[in-house]
Design goal:
disordered C terminus, mainly alpha, about 325 residues, 2 domains, about 70% helix, globular
Length: about 325
Amino acid sequence: MSEPFPQPLLKPGWGLAVLASCAVGVLGLLTPFDFEASRWLWEHANPEFGEWTRRTLFEGDAPGLSDPGICFLLTSLGLYLWSARRSAPEWLQRERPYLSFIILSALAGALGLVHGLKWVIGRARPHEVWLSDWPFTPWHSFGPHFVTEGVYFGSFPSGHTASVVTLIMLAYVLHSHPGLHRRRMWTWLWGAVGVTMAVTMAVGRVMTASHWLTDCLGMILPIWTVLHWMFHRFLRTSEQREYVRMHGSYPSVSAYWELRLAGWGFLILLGLMGLVIGLRSVWLEAGFELLVLTPLGIALIGFAWPRFRRLHEAVLSAFFVVQTNDPA
């Protein structure tokens, strides 16, 4: 007898709406207290705790709170690269839909969304505001940093927090896996661990005056919303895994299509960044030379978007159109 198809952790329709609504609500609640609450946490900080949330093995330091998330992503990347090879064991090829979800979601959420917003918003960090007289700006406004300064790391949003939030992806894998449908307790336990670690990281980053509350606590749910959308809507990961279970093999699609899709998505992101940075110069009446990025951004989006969409549709059709036409 075949295993029953597991129900979603959060229903695709209302689950996405609930997450998005809560994300907006939390940001709205934190915004009025962003400056004062962040300063209070900084003034009452535990230095050892803040240092633990900052450091990482991958920068030559002692182990830090972000290391589990980084190790999880690196392990997933290695398994993903192995799973796409013909010599990969069958059990690993069957799990490739989950690995695709982890890699693409990490690129879209923890890297694309976070670093795109950092460069576009250009928000000053708390220590710059309190110790160097940079102006304070809310998360929804353009900050004082400009791309013409060279490489800079804006405050909004927190990359450290995003790296820990990605651990929630494992809860989606555990819940939807056809072989683990009788062990749902582990799903909720791991989800609780992931959320707790994300909140802990957020508090620690505020204590070090590296981020505002809205950069950290305020971005947990938006990043979670992106992960949820990727799993249920964009990739339809559970249905991909069900196809592999029913047919016994991965469909005939181009090797490493996920990296090609991420490449086109990266060009679209660059186009959006160029478009917004150019318009930002007009809004702030400064750096008018950046206005040239607006038409370049539009051109880049026009070039990359059709190719991104065609590849995405081709991959999904290999799973779902073929499956629909199979004889009963």
